[in-house]
TrEMBL record:
Gene3D superfamilies: DD-peptidase/beta-lactamase superfamily. This is Penicillin-binding protein 4. It comes from Aureliella helgolandensis. The lineage of its organism: Bacteria, Pseudomonadati, Planctomycetota, Planctomycetia, Pirellulales. It holds the Pfam family Beta-lactamase. InterPro entries: AmpC-like (IPR050491), Beta-lactam-related (IPR001466), Beta-lactam/transpept-like (IPR012338). Residues 53-355 form the Beta-lactamase-related domain. SUPFAM superfamilies: beta-lactamase/transpeptidase-like.
């Protein structure tokens, strides 16, 4: 009996210790701000809180807050890589992970604006030997294609024939050769990185350019987004202001290097800065590259065949008052949310494999409710 009790006590202690460890990995302090605090005081509270989280090794990145076109806060805390050699600033380009999907969507919208495709075109019109019937470009954008999210697992299964670095074209071929639909297009919504790699393949096929070049020449350069680019293992070189990813536990930092899968793009691989996100937020209210008629479709909630509505637009999760997306890959953890009624935006970027990123974003958003709200 004593042995059994001691074993149980030991197991409980281990479970408790594991629970506490997980708690410390996810925990952030609350932002203390009075309910009647002014806009200035709220922004100051967030800025001071971010400094405190950085000092406690709970945040390494940048935060941007916009209201009605005004930058209320552009705050950088931490280092561009594990060496602590260079500090982050407004022009540091962070890996965006899945926040990149809205950039890919914008590339598709640019093609539509140029008259080179229609959003309701069959994907088979643009990708030779595309094997999924009745899948449209819009289905890929809305995550309603029925194509399973398995390009990475397929690449690993076929590593011997996939090459040293996985490319967009190889990923597309693997999906066409080896995937089968989970459901008919438009029946359901299933979040899929594969859909957005296929969209990058469509952009390359239609434009006759690499995805990286098309995005640069047709979007980033004309918009003046000088810190923004598509970068993967096939790119010529890193930008001098590009952040690198690392693991951080307390003050211990270990670099995280891209894997052979990081030759693809579309589902990720965009890097951007706080400075350029000011331009990017403004892009969605109207710009010279994509008409408002097309832009507005990015925030439509698609109607499924059963009559229900999905909440996934074109690289955005669309709610009644908010449009948002997050991302995580390698050491990058990212988040953007927009409140169109008040023309408000929050961007949170971190390159330190920060598991607290969602909690950090939630705390900031809660503190800024009176600024973002249209009530």
């Amino acid at each position: 009996m004593l042995v059994t009790a001691s074993i149980c006590f030991g197991l409980l202690a281990i479970a408790g210790g594991a629970g506490y460890y997980i708690y410390t990995l996810l925990h952030v302090d609350p932002i203390v701000v009075a309910s009647d605090a002014s806009e200035t005081d709220r922004i100051a509270a967030v800025a001071g809180w971010l400094d405190d989280q950085f000092e406690k090794h709970r945040f390494n990145g940048g935060v941007l807050i916009i209201r009605d076109g005004r930058v209320l806060l552009s705050k950088a805390c931490g280092y561009t890589d594990n060496t602590k050699t260079h500090r982050i600033d407004d022009h540091t380009a962070f890996r965006l992970a899945s926040v990149s999907k809205q950039f890919t969507a914008a590339g598709v919208l640019r093609l539509a604006e140029m008259g080179l495709l229609d959003l309701d075109d069959s994907v088979a019109e643009h990708l030779e030997n595309f094997s999924f019937e009745n899948v449209s470009v819009r289905h890929l954008l809305n995550q309603t294609s029925g194509i399973p999210d398995e390009y990475m697992s397929l690449a690993e299964e076929h590593r011997e024939t996939a090459g040293d670095i996985l490319t967009i074209s190889t990923a597309v071929e693997l999906v066409m050769w080896h995937s089968k639909s989970d459901y008919a297009p438009g029946d359901a919504t299933e979040y899929s990185n594969t859909n957005y790699v296929l969209l990058a393949g469509v952009i390359e096929a239609v434009s006759g350019m690499s995805f990286e070049r098309f995005m640069s020449e047709e979007l980033f350069q004309p918009l003046g987004m000088n810190d923004t680019r598509v970068w993967n293992l096939l790119s010529d070189q890193r930008s001098p202001n590009q952040a690198s990813d690392f693991d951080q536990i307390d003050d211990d930092r270990t670099p995280i290097e891209p894997t052979w899968l990081d030759g693809v793009a579309g589902d990720g691989a965009v890097f951007s800065s706080l400075n350029d996100f000011v331009i990017w937020d403004r892009f969605w209210y109207g710009n010279s590259r994509v008409s408002n008629t097309l832009l507005e479709q990015a925030f439509d909630r698609p109607k499924l065949k059963d009559g229900s509505r999905s909440d996934y637009g074109f690289g955005w999760v669309v709610e009644r008052k908010r449009q948002w997306h997050n991302g995580a890959w390698l050491g990058a953890n990212t988040y953007i949310v927009r409140y169109p009624k008040t023309r408000s935006c929050l961007v949170v970027l971190d390159n330190s494999s920060n598991l607290r990123l969602d909690s950090i974003a939630d705390e900031i958003e809660e503190a800024l409710k009176p600024i973002f709200s249209d009530d």
